[in-house]
Automatic annotation (TrEMBL):
InterPro entries named among the record's database cross-references: SAM-dependent_MTases_sf
The name this protein goes by in its record: Methyltransferase
Protein source organism: Neptunitalea chrysea
Amino acid sequence: MYKYYPKKRYNETLSFLKKHITTTESILDLGIVNPFSEIMKKEGYHVTNTSGEDLDENREKVQATTTDLVTAFEILEHLLNPYTLLKDIPAEKLIISIPLRLWFSSAYQSKTDKWDRHYHEFEDWQLDWLLEKTGWTIIDSKKWTNPVKKIGIRPFLRLFTPRYYIVYAIRKQC
């Protein structure tokens, strides 16, 4: 495990990525350069990012990609229409992670940033169905918890309720 990264989700995501993708494959990471895209580069992956464009409205960079893999780490929940984006990805491989919908907590919405909010918080079966309908075949998936260092009922529930879900999928062959 990669314990030198501060967040559990970074460690889990990197472990899953290394399980399925070699450092010789090129990656388009949806979203601006972020701490995890920097981790991927540090680990030897060839990563480019989108430029912060609204992926509901502007998918040109995604449609034009010639990379082997597209990654979307905690991106789909911010989109109004992830269906169209997933249909438009020309790459043959895809890794997506999402925060799962929690029955004991409402969807995340920043109080200060109008763009930092979750329109969708999926259950695992919903993401699976979305991928199937958009032409992807799931090869592997994993869930993990995200405990917090707080006291209370919700922090207690987070000890054993999965918070994140990650999927590796390939484009269906017609």
